[in-house]
């Protein structure tokens, strides 16, 4: 009987550990090659009052590629093609382009698309379960990062929430829905070719 109780306690301990936010994050980063999900984004100002809301589709291909297609309140597109990040604003008929490695340094996007160990770039803190999700707090090791902390929430090894607090006190939150993992994308899906005559800004 004592052995049975000890075995059950061990099983419960292992099961609880397997469901932690850190474990789910590691499984997500190790097993997800590609991802497609609908998202809702909200931005809170310094007083934690709602400043903006938007939604669209998010696409990921690891390592090196992502794409955000905003549909509301207006069409915009952000594409990381492995070398550069393009931010297209069709309404203004202009785009900005930056070196990808420089632009993503210390951001959660870098965590999602690179194959580097998370601990190389962030202090990782498991903050337990809330709202049925396992939460992880990431503190950027890069002192020049524009973010002070990043929160990730997982359910069944799927990324469901992401929250970023920047140095100006602004908080950006993402919720992900209708998630599809390890699907195939067309070869040029993460490639952006600017049309002739488009106004291009290069902050680099």
From TrEMBL:
Q: Which InterPro entries match?
A: LolA/LolB/LppX, OM_lipoprot_carrier_LolA-like, OM_lipoprot_carrier_LolA_Pbac
Where is this gene product found? Periplasm
Q: Per its UniProt entry, which superkingdom is the organism in?
A: Bacteria
> Could you tell me the keywords of this UniProt record?
Chaperone, Lipoprotein, Periplasm, Protein transport, Signal, Transport
SUPFAM superfamilies in the record, alphabetically? Prokaryotic lipoproteins and lipoprotein localization factors (SSF89392)
**What Pfam families would the database entry show?**
LolA (PF03548)
Show which residues constitute the signal peptide: 1-18
By its UniProt entry, which CDD domains does this protein fall under? LolA
Where would you say this protein principally sits, based on its record?
Answer: periplasm
Binding partners and assembly = Monomer.
The record's similarity note reads: Belongs to the LolA family.
Function as written in the Swiss-Prot or TrEMBL entry: Participates in the translocation of lipoproteins from the inner membrane to the outer membrane. Only forms a complex with a lipoprotein if the residue after the N-terminal Cys is not an aspartate (The Asp acts as a targeting signal to indicate that the lipoprotein should stay in the inner membrane).
What's the protein name? Outer-membrane lipoprotein carrier protein
Query: Which species does this protein come from?
Result: Solemya velesiana gill symbiont
């Amino acid at each position: 009987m004592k052995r049975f109780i000890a075995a059950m306690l061990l099983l419960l301990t292992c099961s609880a550990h397997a469901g932690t936010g850190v474990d789910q994050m590691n499984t997500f980063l190790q097993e997800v090659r590609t991802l497609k999900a609908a998202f809702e984004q909200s931005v809170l100002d310094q007083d934690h009052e709602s400043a903006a809301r938007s939604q669209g589709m998010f696409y990921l291909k690891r390592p090196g590629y992502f794409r955000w297609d905003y549909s509301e309140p207006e069409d915009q597109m952000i594409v990381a093609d492995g070398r550069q990040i393009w931010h297209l604003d069709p309404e203004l008929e202009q785009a900005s382009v930056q070196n990808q490695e420089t632009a993503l340094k210390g951001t959660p996007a870098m965590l999602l698309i690179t194959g580097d160990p998370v601990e190389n770039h962030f202090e990782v803190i498991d903050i337990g379960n809330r709202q049925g999700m396992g939460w992880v707090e990431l503190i950027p090791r890069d002192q020049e990062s524009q973010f002070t902390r990043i929160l990730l929430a997982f359910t069944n090894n799927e990324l469901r929430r992401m929250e970023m607090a920047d140095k100006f006190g602004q908080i950006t939150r993402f919720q992900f829905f209708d998630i599809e993992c390890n699907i195939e994308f067309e070869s040029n899906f993460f490639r952006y070719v600017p049309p002739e005559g488009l106004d291009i800004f290069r902050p680099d």
